[in-house]
Design a protein that fits this description.
two-stranded antiparallel sheet, about 10% strand, globular
Length: about 220
């Protein structure tokens, strides 16, 4: 009787690499400040230009921002359909693997604080900012989770009218339904939570890590 060969060894898939958001992409360093000195204004404008160039090159050029040489394609060219926690979503294909890392970790580590999203939104065709800012939704690197349950209390318009925004709290975590554990997992894999921003946009995560360093 011929010897039975052992089954081939199973090779592990790519390992997710923890990484922080890149500081130069943070919104707080790109906002014009009233009464800022000329040197500070120039530094802010330079930071804004650097951020736009980086995002254009990596995720597609947004019309009206940066140079045409940054990228021949708009962000929609790189759009990819995916899912998050069973919900359909469209993001830039470069950050879809990072979101998969997040989802796997959420299922492993946050099961003790169960939370099931009802709605999730990703890429947008138009910029929602009306001045010099470019929303990361336009680049397809941001997602919003349950806007009615996780509000943006310092946004303009109806967003700030959410009744929970009138609640006195010690931190934005107390105004949202999403567990803090979710924020911690997202941030481990290169996503920045805008709950930390002056907007207190608790629904919003944006990938500000390096898309070339998602895996080990």
């Amino acid at each position: 009787m011929a010897a039975i060969s052992p089954p081939p060894a199973r090779t592990a898939g790519p390992q997710c690499r923890p990484q922080p958001a890149q500081d130069f992409l943070l919104r707080k360093g790109q906002i014009a400040k009233i009464g800022a000195a000329p040197d500070e204004r120039r530094a802010i404008e330079a930071a804004r230009a650097r951020s736009v160039e980086y995002r254009n090159r990596n995720y597609g050029r947004v019309s009206g921002f940066g140079r045409r040489s940054d990228n021949p394609h708009p962000p929609t060219f790189y759009a990819e359909r995916t899912t998050f926690m069973g919900l359909p979503l469209v993001l830039n294909k470069k950050v879809v693997p990072a979101l998969a890392c997040v989802e796997a970790a959420l299922k492993r580590e946050c099961a003790g604080q169960p939370y099931r999203p009802r709605t999730v939104g990703g890429i947008r065709g138009e910029n929602t900012f009306k001045d010099y800012e470019v929303s990361n939704h336009v680049y397809g690197i941001a997602l919003d989770i349950d806007p009615q349950l996780n509000p943006c209390c310092h946004c303009v318009g109806f967003w700030a009218e959410n009744p929970v925004c009138r609640k006195k709290v010690r931190s934005p975590y107390e105004r949202m339904a999403m567990p803090k554990c979710w924020v911690e997992v997202f941030e481990r894999y290169g996503f920045h939570w805008l709950g930390h921003d002056e907007l207190e946009d608790t629904m919003h995560f944006e990938f500000l890590g390096d898309p070339d360093r998602i895996f080990e």
